[in-house]
Amino acid sequence: MPARRLACGLLSVLVSAAPTARAQDAALPAAARAAADGITAAALARDLDYFAADALRGRDTASPGFDAAATYIEARLKAAGVTPAGDAGTFRQHYDLRELRVNTAAASLEIAGRRFAFGTDFVLRSFAGPIDATVPVVYVGHGWHAPARGFDAWAGLDVRGKLVLAHGPRAMPKGVTITQIGRVAVGASSVFAEAKARGAVGVLFLTASDPKADWTTMQSANLLRREIDPVVPSAYAAPPITSLLLARPAIEALLAGDRVDAGTLVARGDKGDYPRPFQLARRIRVHVPLASVASERPFNVVAMIKGSDPLLEDEYVTVASHLDGAVGMGEVDGDRIYNAADDNATGSAGTLAIAEQIMKGPRPKRSLIFIWDSGEERGLWGTRRFVHQPPVPLDRIVAHVNVDMIGATRAPGTPDAGSADATGPNEVFLMGPGVLSPTVDALLERVNASYLRMTLNRRDDRPESEYFYPRTDAGPYLERGILIVGFTTGSHPRYHLPTDEARYLDPAKMEAVARTIFASVWALANTADRPRIEREIPATVPRYMTHH
After folding, report:
1. Burial, 300: exposed, middle or buried (Cβ in 10 Å; 0-12, 13-18, 19+)?
2. Of the four listed, 76, 281, 292, 518, which is most buried by Cβ atoms within 10 Å?
């Protein structure tokens, strides 16, 4: 029975070959490991000190400090022989940023012949563009839309060409909690999004009986809108519609003689006892004009290293760190400079070191794209620009690796020894693969076990963690169905303060994390099977484009 013996022999070969293939995936070739070992604490510390220097003043987007940091990276990439992947053969991938400013002096409301002034009778809750219209008003209660959770304030309503009136903007359906992190509402659609999608002119908000917001502060808020143009759909985008918060006199005039008076409607909203939606009897004239329009041209730094396999070089792993810092107006002990050292000079330095060292070793099979994006702290401008118009087809990106804040340690005697959200001396948070891809998860575990054996903390590698989504720079990639992998050493009390300075960070920890990311990226780009999402993307992640 020779055929049977042959089949058994082939089966034996295949069974014995499987572990070998996995081992090859997991182990870095000696030359690649030597390249990873070339990432040193001393070199990372030098780059960190440059990026986080007072002279760069936090590298705010579209600032001289950001431009200087970008030029520094470009010079290093050029010296290393990395290929530019930005506009017209350069490293810079530009996008248009549009700035709209409200003319508050001319802004007004008119109800039944009575004029109401900005600042006294209403303020802006969001600004997406001017309004000059006399239109009907439709009351929509709390304004939330989440049919899967059993509530929909918009069912059967026609609000096209009208204003909508809602409680809030933090009103909730009774007995329901909706997690809101910045601009992102997890698992639900807000009144802003629904009003825009359904063609409303704008939103009017009812002030609660005991408003939490300070009216004086609100008078100077939301007068300026800065957003990429064209707007790239994402949960991180600026509010898509102009909205006004009404003071009590304007509310009373608007509801005078209607089926529900102002006092009753506000009181019922305070209790979460919202009346059924209805169209108001009175129309309202809203005049919110522009004072000025301005434009800027920020940019990302984008570079490429081609893969070594002709059959796989047109698949890509992207590696990104936001280069901009969160530059605020506060002061700590006389210091007003937001150096943004850990967030994210550390990640920017680490990503630069990885790109340089990959050029010194064997190339993985797939190609790599390195991104230092801008506008992250303002609304993920650069990331949204990249996914909207990437230098390669989006469906050829097999995985996205995000590197953000990799300099903190909870080691005894360090500044962050008592920081519960910082990782230990040989520990890094890993997010994404545990939720999305068991195969990639296992690959990264094997790679780590064969190299530095860092502790991969999975605290936030679960769908319900806000650090999986939406508090990740990788969010716009995940919204488009791209596998994400995130590395961070966690947070600390200096986050987004002038005290986020290089002197508090640990370059040795940065070295271990950057080397581990190098190994992970190299393995992802070199594995025989295409990395892919294998589990359902959690329902809390909105989808803006199907990715195959």
Report:
1. buried
2. 518
Q: Which of 516, 503, 512 is nearest to 342 (CA)?
A: 503
* In contact, 346 and 409? CB cutoff 8 Å: no
Compute the distance between CA of residue 243 and CA of residue 222 in angstroms, rounded to an integer. 10
pLDDT in tens, 173-201: 888 888 777 667 777 889 999 999 999 99
Would the CA dihedral through 470, 474, 475, 478 be positive or negative? negative
For residue 448, give the amino acid letter.
N
Number of helices followed by number of strands (H, E) in the chain: 15, 26
And the tokens for 146?
């989440």
Both structure tokens of 255? 């509801």
> Are 527 and 317 a contacting pair, CB within 8 Å?
no
Cβ distance 362 to 308 under 8 Å?
yes
Among 235-249, 476-490, 532-546, where is mean pLDDT lowest?
A: 532-546
- Please state, in angstroms and rounded to a whole number, the distance separating the CA atoms of residues 540 and 548: 20
Task: Report DSSP state, residue 52.
Answer: T
| The pLDDT of residue 454 is above 70 | yes
SS3 state of residue 374: coil
Confidence of residue 25 (pLDDT cuts 50, 70, 90): low
Tokens representing residue 229 in the block? 């143009």
Is pTM, for the whole model, over 0.85? yes
Residue 522 DSSP label = H
What would the two tokens of residue 180 be? 């809101």
Rounded Cα–Cα distance for residues 433 and 446 (Å): 13
* Strand ranges (E), 202-260: 202-206, 224-229, 243-246
Phi then psi dihedrals of residue 148, to 5 deg:
-65, -20
What confidence tens digit (pLDDT) does each residue in 221-254 have? 999 999 999 999 998 999 999 999 999 999 999 9
Q: d(Cα 38, Cα 356) in Å, to the nearest integer?
A: 9
pLDDT at 18 over 60: no
**110 alpha-carbon distance from chain centroid:** 39
CA 235 to chain centre: 9
Tokens of 228: 């990429």
Token readout for 483 is 């596998």
Mean per-residue pLDDT for 118-141? Answer: 97
Whole-number average pLDDT of the chain? 92
Tokens of 98: 């549009």
What gap in Å lies between CA 498 and CA 88, rounded to an integer?
A: 37
Both tokens of 178, joined, read 């909706």
The CA–CA distances, whole Å, from 84 to 74, 92, 174, 372, 480 equal 9, 8, 53, 12, 25
Query: For 118-132, what is the mean pLDDT?
Result: 97
Contacts of 291 (CB under 8 A, 6+ apart): 101, 102, 103, 104
Beta bridge partners of residue 116, listed in sequence order: 109
